[in-house]
């Protein structure tokens, strides 16, 4: 299999603190590439060591040169440096960021374009923080794609992403007590490099006649939290680090692989780790090499996962039943966890019935409309009103955490109660999405479409979650099937789809993670819309109401 590797290391981004473990991280991954027999002509290292500058154009050119070979079967891109997560979008900060808002790698756009690059398997490994921007300057970083913008068509590439930590968490580097106070270690890179070098025998899978062993993406992703926990525990230092790796794997679990060895001939068993020690490079400590203790100890479990616990509790709250009361209109928007101050419906009629219920006058000729809602929390949101349905906005901790829909009953015009099994399933999906959990992992894309075709007319918000899931599963070709009858396509369905350019509602992304993609498909929206508030579903400060009213009038008139 023809493979190529791009290794990116950025010690210093703007005025952010200098990261000391970057060189060692690059060395670890370079050693792995050499141990796999990947030639130097297929490895590019881009680092700011010795005062260099890492620019997005240089990364793009390196990636493009490999893509243009047209014979490449796997491309691995590794990054060690500062990162931020802005509205659920990941950004790798390069040397000139945040001063230059383009000098960052926009992972969402890069992954979307990677699917079109005709390299069957793309792997991104990120040893970077996933915390919210700590300053307004970082919040204004938009970043660039490192993959070329090729035409759509043909089979989409499988794109696997390995993150050093969970959404909202930092990726740690710690001093190495075995070397000097100036030497630091990138914990996550040490572990994933050791795994890729065959240092954890339980991850090795025999194939064919048993003469070869593989490290495959899916088992690696699920083993990394425990492996990192064991690694941190074995450092013998009083650390307060609680770092849990995460990732997204879409490649074929039975076919895709990251490392291949002849049986019993892993890099560690061949002594390559010891060679690294002698050179003073990545393997300068015993942790990076294999030994009798290279297997995962059984007695130390990984730390409890507070994110999963928080998502489970949030799902219970979302599934809690409620009744907004009698609705004397063909459409409505209801809020829980907040109150409405006012409503601006654009070209349709609307009235505020209570401080938590707004009625919207839609007709068969106008079956949907964008509605601007001012919340008592000091925020505002644009939500689609849909004929024959009531939308429910759920607000928690100054975030719009979910928007769901249910049909209006005939006659007494109340919110229809949906199937409890569906409500629980949807609540789990919404909560997992909010906390950055890949709820769709292992799901059948066709099955997601079938569920929408059964339930989507009652609750169109399912299309939003499923569109993002199908895109993550590299099945954008199925997204167009998440279309409602007698209504415009929801914005996120258009955004995550494969070339759709028809009318949409509303005029901006519903899930905040969609904002990272606006530079790819709809740059006019990104340039004209205000910067959204940190929220699962798109939310703005109420100071942006005049601008949003102007945009609503403009877009609804188109």
Q: Your description of this structure?
A:
Residues 284-294 have a biased composition (Low complexity). This is Peptidase C14 caspase domain-containing protein. GO terms for molecular function: cysteine-type endopeptidase activity. The chain is an alpha/beta fold. The chain folds into two domains: 3-303, Rossmann fold; 310-556, no CATH class. The chain is 27% helix and 23% strand. It is built from 15 helices and 25 strands. The strands form seven sheets. It has a six-stranded mixed sheet, with helices on both faces. Strands 17-18-15-21-22 form a five-stranded mixed sheet. Helix 4 links the parallel strand 7 and strand 8 (158-163). Helix 1 runs parallel beside helix 5, helix 8 (306-318) crosses helix 9 (420-434) and helix 10 (445-455) runs antiparallel to helix 11. The chain is elongated. The N and C termini lie far apart (50 Å).
